[in-house]
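Support case: user asked for a sample of complex input and structure output to validate their parser. Sending the pair below.
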Amino acid sequence: MHAKALRHWLTITAMAISLSPLAQAADYVGGDEITVLQGFKPGGGSDALAQLVQPRLSEILGVDFVNEYMPGATGAIAWTRLAKQSPKNGGTISITNTPMLMTNYIMNDAITYKTDELTPIANVVTDPGIVVVNADSPYQTIEDLFEDAEQNPGTVTIGNSGVGGDDFFTTILLEQAKGLSLKKVPFQGDGPSATAAMGGKIDASFNNVGNVYGQIQSGNLRALAVFSEKRLTSLPDVPTMKEKGVDVVAGSSRGYSAPAGIPDEARQQLIEAFETLAKDPDFQAQAEKRAMNLDVVTGDDYRAMIDQMESDYRGIWESVKDEVGR
Amino acid sequence: MDSSLVMIGLANVLSVNNIACILGGTLLGLFVGAMPGLSATMALALLLPLTFSFDPATGLSMLASLYVGASYGGSIAAILLRTPGTPSAAATVLDGFPLSQQGRAGEALGVSLFASFFGGLLSGIALLTAAPLLGTLVLEFGPIELFAIAVLGITIIGSLAQGSVISGLLSGGLGLLLSTVGMDLTTGTPRMTFDQINLFGGIDFTVALIGLFSVPQALTLIENSHQGGKVASRITDRLMPRWSTIKQLMPNILRSSGIGIVVGLIPGTGGDTASWFAYNEAKRFAKDKSQFGKGDIAGVAAPESANNAVVGGALIPTIALGIPGSSSTAILLGALMVQGILPGPNLLTDYGDVTYTLIWAVILANIALLVVGLAFTKMSVSVTKIPDGFIACAILTLCIIGAFAINNSLFDVGLMLGFGLFGYWMSKAGVSPAPMVIGLILGPVMEISFQQSMLIGNDSFGVFLESPIATVLLILALLSILQATPVFRWLRMPFKRRLKQG
C-alpha cells in the first residue's frame, strides 16, 4: 500500500516536472523570464511577430516571455526605456523596428537614445516596400506613374505611413533616383494609406507587402513595383524597382535587441536561439501563412545592418529636412 | 453572401463553449465598462493576449461580446455616479445623472439597456445582411470627407453649451487647442511638447476624459459627504421600462442607431463621436428641448443606442474589407492576424466560417446583454447604498489605474490628475467639460484630414466642394451653426408668416 502510494506520487512529480518549462533547458544566463518591451499597442504588427516568435523561443531557451506594452512616440518611449533604464542582464529585450528605430532620433533631438546603446540580437522579418494603386487607376505599370510625375511635377499624390516611416523615406529615395517631385501625403499608418488608395483618394500608396497582399489578391489594389532585391515568390508578376533602373531596396524590418552591455554569454545564447528558430520548418511555414517575409540576420550582421541604415537615413534626412519642415 | 457559411457560423457559435464565452465576455464587458477609467478598447487590449491560446472563433466571440458589454456598461456609472464608465458614455452623463438625481435612475438605466440592445441588434443585422454593400461605402470617405465630418461634429459644441454659450465655446476652444499638442503629422515636428517624449503622441483624450469627468465628481462627493446629504442617486423606480416609453423613444432609437452604424463604419470615428452626434440630433428633433441637460430620457436613449450600434457598424468595413472602423475593431483585427488570418476582403469568403461566427456572436452578445445586463444593473445599483466618501475613493483609485493602463505610463496618470484638478475648477466655475472633450476627440481628426486634403488638393480650398459628400456635410455644419444664431430666426420668419397666411 505504502509503495503504491509512493509510486503514485513519483508519477505525479515526474509529470509535473515534464510539464514545467523549467525542465527543458533552464540554463539561460539572463534568468527564467525575459521581459519584451513593445513600443506599440497590442494586436499590431509587432505583437503578431511576438506571438509567432516568442512561444517557440520560449521552448528553445527554457524561459517565459512577458510582453510589456508601452506605446507612444512611434516606439521611442519603449526604446528609450530599453537603452537607458533596463537591467543589462539579458532579462529585458525589445522588438526593434527599423528604420523607425533610428529615424526617431535622427528627426527629433528630444529623443535621446542611440542605436549604440543597444545590443542588436536578430532581425526576424523584413516587409518589402511596394507601390500600389487603385484597381481603376490609369497607371497600369510603374512607368505610367513615372511618366505622369514627370509631366506634372509635384501633383501626383503618394500616400505613406507617416513622416519618419519607411515609406516616407522610400518616396524620397525614388524622387532622388528619378529626379521626380511627388506630393507626399502622410497617413497614420500603412492601413489608412492603403485604404485611401483603394478609394482612389490618392494616386498611389507606398506601402508594405504584408499590409496589402490580401487586397492585391482580391483585386482591390494593383501592385506596380516592389522595393526588393529580387522578385517576390508571392507576387511573381510584379517587377522590382531595380529592374526598372531605380536602385532602391527598402522595407520595414522587425527584430529583437537588448540594451548595450549585456553579458556576452546571454547575447550568444539569444543569437543561437534565433538561429535555431530560423531553421524550424514549422516556424517557416507559419510565417509564410501570415505573409511575413523572413529575413533572419543575427548578431554582428544585424549590428552592421542597423549601422548602415542609420548612416543612410541620416544622409537622406539631412538632404530633405529643410524642405519637409517648410 | 454564401448562405452555407452563414449557417456554419451560426452552428459554430451555438456550441456550449462559445455561448459560455459570450456570456463571460458580456459580463466582463459590463464590469469593465461600468468601472470609470477602464474602457472597451483597453479591456480588449488586455484580454487579447489571453485569447491567443483559444480557437479563433471562440476567442473572437469573447472579444466581440466584451466590446458589446462594455458599450452598455459605461452608462451605468454615467447615470448613477456622473462618471462615464467609458469614453462613449460621456454624452449619457448629461441627462442620465439629472434623471437619477430626480429618483428616476431605474428608468434611465432601463432605457439605456433597451436602447443599447436595439442599437446593437440593428447594427448586428446590418452587419449580417449588408456588410459587403456598406463596406464599399467606407472607401468613399477619404481625408476630405473626414474633415467635413469633423467640422460637423465640432458644431455640436455650440448646441451643447448649456447656459452660457461663451463658456461652452471657451471649453471647446481649449479642447481644440490642447489637441494640437504632439507631433505634426506632415512635418514630424513636435509641437508644445517641451521635449517631453511622452507628449509626442499627443494627449490621449481618454486620459483627459477620465480626469475631466471622474475626478471632479469624486472631489464633489468628498466635499459633500460631511453634510450628510447624498449627491449620488437613490433608486426609487423600477428598472424595466414601460412599453409606452420604449414606443415613444423608438424613432429616436432608430435614428441614433443609424447614426451609430454610419459613424462606426467610417474609420477614424467611433463610439465616442457617435454618441455626441446622436445626442445632438435627438435634441434637434425634439419638440421640447427645454428638458435636455436637466433629465430628458431621450438624452439617454440616443447616445446609448448609438454607441452600441457602433459595434456592428465598425465591424462592417473590418470584415468586408479588412479595414478597422474603430480603435476597438483594430484590436479585433489584430486578434485575427495573430491567429494567422490575414485581414482583407477574403474574410467573408476564405475565412467565412470564422467571420460569420463573429457576426453571430455580436448578435447573440446583444441578446446576452439584455439578460445579463438586467441582473448586473440590478446589482450595481447597490453602489448607491455605499457612503459617498468610499465611492469617491474608489473612483479616484480606478481613475489612476485606468489612466495608467491605457499606455502603461505613469506620465499619463499625472496628466489625468492635472486634468482632474482643472475639471474641478471648471465645475466650480460652471464651465461644462463636454465641449472640451469633443474638441480633444475631433481636433486631431480635423487637423490631420485638413492637412491631407490640402496636400491632395494642391493647397486649394476648392477640394472640399469637389466632393459631394463633403459639400453636403459642410452645408449641414453651416446650417447647424446658423441654427444657434439669431440669423436663422430671421431667415425663418418670412416662411412662418406665409404659413400663417396660408
